[in-house]
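Project standup — Tuesday

K.O.: blocked on the structure for the chain from last sprint. Re-posting the sequence here as requested.
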Amino acid sequence: MAIRGSEPTRNRPRRLTFSTETLLLQISVLTLVGLLSATLYTWVTYQQLTADTESRALAVAQSIAADPDVRDLVTQLSDLPSLPDNQALRAGPIQAIAESMRERTGALFVVVTDDDGIRLSHPTPALLGQPVSTSPTEALSGKEVVDLETGTLGPSARAKVPVWSTASHTPVGEVSVGFSTESILASSLRAIAPIAFTVVAALLAGVLASTFLVRRLRKLTLGLEPEEISTLVQDQEVVLYGVAEGVVGVAADGRVTVCNARARRLLRLGNVTGRQIRTLSIPAPILRLIDQTTAGGSLTVQVVVGPSVLLVSARKVLRGTSDLGWVLTVLDRTQVEELTRQLDAVGALTSALRVQRHEFANRLHTASGLLDIGEVDEASRYLRQTLESGPVKYPVEHGDRLQDPYLQAFVGAKGFQASERGVLLRVGAGTLIRGSVTDPQDITTVLGNLIDNAVEAAVHGSSEPRWVEIELLSEDRTLHLVVADSGDGVVGDPGLPFVEGHSERKGSSDSEHGQGLGLTLSRRIARNLGGDVWLAAPGEQGGPGAVFCALLPDVLELPKAAPGGRRKAARRG
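H.V.: unblocked you, prediction finished:
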């Protein structure tokens, strides 16, 4: 059973491609132009040859009509009561003169008549003594006539000239000279032959040129038809300007062919279409990404441009054997990266608080047991020790200098991580915080990145023992952070640690490390708060290492003073 609708599709004639239509149209136009040109030239040539032939006939007729002998003979015959018979005219001098002139000039005929239009000469002797086939009226009235007419010998270009009397200025006859139009046509064909050859050669050259242009068009459009190109343009508009990602198209020669608004905003570019990508202010990792991307492959790099953390992917684009260049996709991962860092800090804080809660419960159970068995003094001593040292014995030297529970738990968690890598984390003697933390996420993110950076430097440092020291100092609602380490310091430009992609963790087995964004994000968070992160001292080889500082405004809440205390202070004042 046939499928309905399949037969019309099968029998539907195949439509010619646009390139084929273009080729056929160009050939048709060239052919039409060639034919019109040849026809016009033939017509002009024919008209010119006709005019020349008519002028020639007129000249021959004038020369015969002006011959004194012809004038005398025609005048004498016109004065006779009747003309001689056919035989006498055949042997007459007028016939001889006319035929002699006809043979010399190659005319179709040379006819001389009297004042009644009776032939006195004719190429056909049998017609002598008979009236001419065309009207002699105008010539006998004294006018010279040039025209195309058809007589007994066929169509011809002829001239009629009056023969004037020798005695008085009156017409006594006419001379009619004609040249066959067939000779004119033959001359036209001989004249048109080179033009026809030229037209055919031009037509062939035009066909070859059109074929070349069509092939060139197919190559430039990658074999796509106009409908397909229109569809691609529509799809491009939808894809490039309808998606949230930035898209940059780079041709094989390095020219930027497409750059949507999102990409211009993220990469901080202007109108760069048509410019070489290597002349633009684009981070070097993106340019290296283009150089390293091979056919069919895709590479990704994470960079920081201005305040944004961008994930840039490069893909090599091929169509058949044609290299179309690269497509860069730009994603804004600023918020994601910040949230990731904050979640890492919150995760570490949560783990530390969970450990504290567990240890609190254990110690409360211990104190409760001592009270149950009546060991009140032992329970009191045990509780005092817990209050002094905290619920958990973190591997953080002088950790008791931190009284804020968030900071205590977070630094304790970082102490565990540092001790696992053979680094001692300690709290400096200058640590003093009055008040409580109001924004633990930003503080722990900045402090965590600084501690992680310092621990990494200490692990790769050459000095022993390996340590990291932090100091936290409050000034009203502002928190000052100082982080030092025992590493080998920062070599070279002091701003290098804040450059995206620069990291001392490259080659680390930890997948979270090696991105080179921690210090960059920490500085961005601090500057968003109105503060900053900077390198206070670069350190030296063999230790001590670098010293980083941070200023975080409005992240603390000042303690509320007791009313009694305020009254005592007033009385003391």
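K.O.: great, moving the ticket to review. The two ends are 110 Å apart (CA to CA). Residues 244-331 form a domain with the Beta-Lactamase fold (CATH 3.30.450.20).
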